[in-house]
Every structure is written in C-alpha cells, then in structure tokens.
Fold this protein.
Amino acid sequence: MMNDQMLSKLQEMKLAGMAEAYKDQAQNREYQSMSFEDRFSLLVDLEYSRRKSNHLNRLIKNATFSDSKACIEDIEYFDDRKLKKDLILKLASGLYIENDHNIILKGPTGSGKTFMACAFGVSACRQHYKVKYVRLPELLDELSLAKLAADGSYRKLIKKYTKTDVLIIDEWLLTDLSKDEANIVLEITEARHKTASTIYCSQIDPSGWHTKLGNGTIAEAILDRIIHDSYQFLLDGEISMRERHGLAIEV
C-alpha cells in the first residue's frame, strides 16, 4: 500500500526519482518479496541516475553548442581524413583538460571542425566539466559592448569565461582583428593560460594567425599563450564532410 504522505514528502524534497520508484514499488506486488535493503537500493539508484542525467542535460544546455548531438563515437575516420583515432580518444578522456592544454582544429569550410569541437565539448560535459561554445565574432561583440558600459560587466564577463573549464571558440580569426579586439583576445588567452583549456576552430593554419592579429607584440603574446600548449588537428580530405552527408556547401 502506498503512503501518500511519504510520497508527498519525497516530491516536496524534490526527490522525483525516489518518488517515482516508490510509486512503482507500491503498485507492483513483485517488489514485496524483496528485502528492505534491496528495495531501498532501487529507490536510491533511480534518484541518483535521474540527477546525473539532469546534471548532464544542464551542462549541455548551458554550453550552447551549435550541435549538442555531436559525440566522439560518431566521428568518421575515412582514410583521406588522416585523423589519429588513438589521440582523439585519448584527448576525449579528458587528458588535455587535466593538463590545461588546448586543441586547435584547422581545415576548410565543411571539413567537420565544428562537429569535432562540439564532440569534444559533449565528452567534457559527460565528465562534469563546464563547457561554453561561442563564435569569435559573438565573443568580441559581447565583450566590446561590456567594455563600453563601464559598469564592471566587462570584468565579470572575463571572469565568467575564465572559469569555464573548456571554452570552444569557433570561426577563429576569419577576419583581421582591430587593435581593441586583439587586446580583448589577449585578455581572454592570458586569463585562461595554464588554468583552463580552449578549443579553437579555424580555417587558417596557426602560421597565418600572426597577421590576422595585427602583427606586433600583442599578436606574439597571444600566440605564445596558445600554440605551445596545443594539440593540432588538420581536418581535410578529398571530399568534404558536407559533401559526404549531402549538405549544402557554404560559400
């Protein structure tokens, strides 16, 4: 027989998993032959699983991935892509995050950079790391506006992006940056240097980043904080991933 008062208390304490399992046990006579310990263990297990699942869903939602369904298991290792599967799986286990290293994904449009970056991000969420996906133009717009506000919001945003365990920056250096934008990028890279991991998605090889960042000492400082602690992957192939999957080619 179900105790409505007990059920109400479980729901009031937001123990939805235990409440659901309790209702199931009360309505199914087969549970009556089980010991108290076994029945209670089932209640705890369902509540634990529900909370773990909800936590993962929140992490993925807060990450704002462009593709929240991307996962390491779905990466395609065609011969012409020349991807190092062992290294990808090793990094996906969280190795680069533990060591505060970065990942650079470079390749032409349609090569699968964004998918792989999101796959690494989802893998990090599964390991309970906080992840944030953002396009560089959006990041610069957000921080530039905050800087103009002069109400402390700029520093709060820098702190927010610093605290993120894995920051994914897509569309990295598609265009040349102004001096102010380069300074903002320097602040982000400096704040995260050797304290957190960043994944960069770029159509341009790092050898060409110096020019995009305006040359000079600012560019050198940014590159120094990114390149030396990074794993680099060239995503290419005789056929783009967009073509393989029958998707429209971006111009």
